[in-house]
């Protein structure tokens, strides 16, 4: 094949790939979902107490909230249970209509996503082994700390580390280790491979509840925020459909019952919208 032909072939392939990407990146409207008969959502598979698999069955706060939404939404909800790393990218490319998982709302994420009415409040804390000398955020100086890759908790940890450096003359966390999922981080914490793990207070409380002789929750290292399901930026039509149900579940108290069951607290002062 000549050089010119090869260039032309590469250009055609590139254009075809770009066209495919643009097509897959379009977000379905509620009318399009109703026409095809279903809504596609992605849910994390290992993030207790929000979404996890127990005895082969998906359970947790978001899954039970989804069960209530299914009764009212008027179309089938096809759910893909998968690791966190693939969920948000799947929404941005249009593979999934919604990230139906515990997504922390951040200013950075608002550039790419719009969020449904929040499902709970959240703040990033750190956890340690029960016998650890680490008691305060300042004690993390010189220590190894873990968090889930791509998570808002990792961003909070990095921001907190910058605050530590300013406060302690350049001395901050010794190393930040990123994990694909939190169970691996907790395993390393128990084995002493990391000194602390940063996660939401709700998730760390759940960890301590299941292993009270091993772990303790430390202090906050992030600012209060909200957790919400996410759609591709600009997909207001779908948000309106889902928000009407979530707000109804607040009004009739069913959301707060699930919060108390799974999260150990109720969040009745949340705003209707976080966008």
TrEMBL record:
Tell me the leader sequence span: 1-27
One Pfam match: SBP_bac_3
Keyword terms: Signal
Family annotation (Gene3D superfamilies): Periplasmic binding protein-like II
Q: Which residues form the Solute-binding protein family 3/N-terminal domain?
A: 38-266
Protein's UniProt keywords contain Cytoplasm: no
Entries under InterPro entries matching the protein: Solute-binding_3/MltF_N (IPR001638)
> Know the name of this protein?
ABC transporter substrate-binding protein
Provide the taxonomic classification: Bacteria, Pseudomonadati, Pseudomonadota, Betaproteobacteria, Burkholderiales
